[in-house]
Amino acid sequence: MQTENRAQTENRAQTENRAHTDNSAYIDVRNVTVTYAQKKGEFRALDDVSLFVGKGEFICLLGPSGCGKTTLLNVMAGFEKAAKGSVAIDGEAVKRPDPRYVTIFQNYGLLPWRTVRKNVELGLETKKLPRAQRSKIADRYLEMVGLGDFRHHHPGQLSGGMQQRVAIARALAADPEILFMDEPFGALDAITRMKLQDDVRRLSDEEKKTIVFVTHDIEEAVFLADRIVVMTPNPGRIRSIVDVQLGHVRDRTSDEFIMMRDKIFAVFNMKTERTVEYYI
Ligand SMILES: Nc1ncnc2c1ncn2[C@@H]1O[C@H](COP(=O)(O)OP(=O)(O)OP(=O)(O)O)[C@@H](O)[C@H]1O
Fold this sequence. Notes:
Elements: E1 2-5, H1 6-21, E2 27-38, E3 41-53, E4 58-62, H2 69-77, E5 84-89, E6 92-93, E7 101-104, H3 116-122, H4 131-144, H5 160-173, E8 178-182, H6 190-207, E9 210-215, H7 218-224, E10 227-232, E11 237-243, H8 255-269, E12 273-276
Parallel strand pairs: 4-9, 4-10, 7-8, 8-9
Antiparallel strand pairs: 1-12, 2-3, 2-5, 5-6, 10-11
Helix pairs in contact: 3-4, 3-5, 4-5, 7-8
Bound molecules: adenosine-5'-triphosphate (ATP).
Adenosine-5'-triphosphate binds next to strand 2, strand 3 and helix 2.
InterPro entries: AAA+_ATPase, ABC_transporter-like_ATP-bd, ABC_transporter-like_CS, ABC_transporter_ATP-bind, P-loop_NTPase
Keywords: ATP-binding, Nucleotide-binding, Transport
Region (Disordered): 1-22
């Protein structure tokens, strides 16, 4: 047991994060501050945030509403600019969104007038492939997410969970190096959500993509992540980074899973001055 204040905890989180990546960061976020003009003046959505993500890692950004999860994801994906600090992917500064990195949002982003297959093909249209090859690739990924029989349907004929699976198939078909996922299952019921968590975890193992996944659901983060980045608001900062050493096949009812979930709860329950156990 050891006592430390918030600044020391955050400092430790950043140091551990550096040590973890051993200078080989694939996504390299350094001392990033993002500010927004608000009625009361300048608001720091992110304050001096550093995060290094390894190639093939599954990272969950976890925290309460307003802690800057989406802002951090948007900075990495090139949708948002940092007021201070830098973001690089594979050694290249991120200046704008890049087709090598695909973002999946909560609202699926499907085109309602296109069939499911044509929606998946959308991700391939910049690649100038022959039409038949595009359809073949689209069908392969639709099979992978269990929607092979629905390729001629339109999005409006599918449930929310099925539509999100189409969005995932479309993202994977584009063969991106990184998948950014912003609360992709937030609008879904608990059972569908668990099925899609299974899908994404399996796909991440099979396809070996680097995934940055925003969620405010602790169990979702423990089920999916290799590392959980715990964030706190006002201003948005990284409080702690937790290694989830639960292996590839995860059982939500196992003792290890529940212990890990409780450790994350403990991180959120910490007060400014508090007693903590080592949890990493
Ligand atoms: N365009 C903007 N203009 C002004 N303030 C903004 C803007 N975008 C975000 N913010 C503020 O920045 C903070 C962080 O927002 P962000 O969306 O990154 O948080 P979040 O952790 O993803 O929240 P949620 O879980 O609710 O989506 C919030 O307080 C929000 O009000």
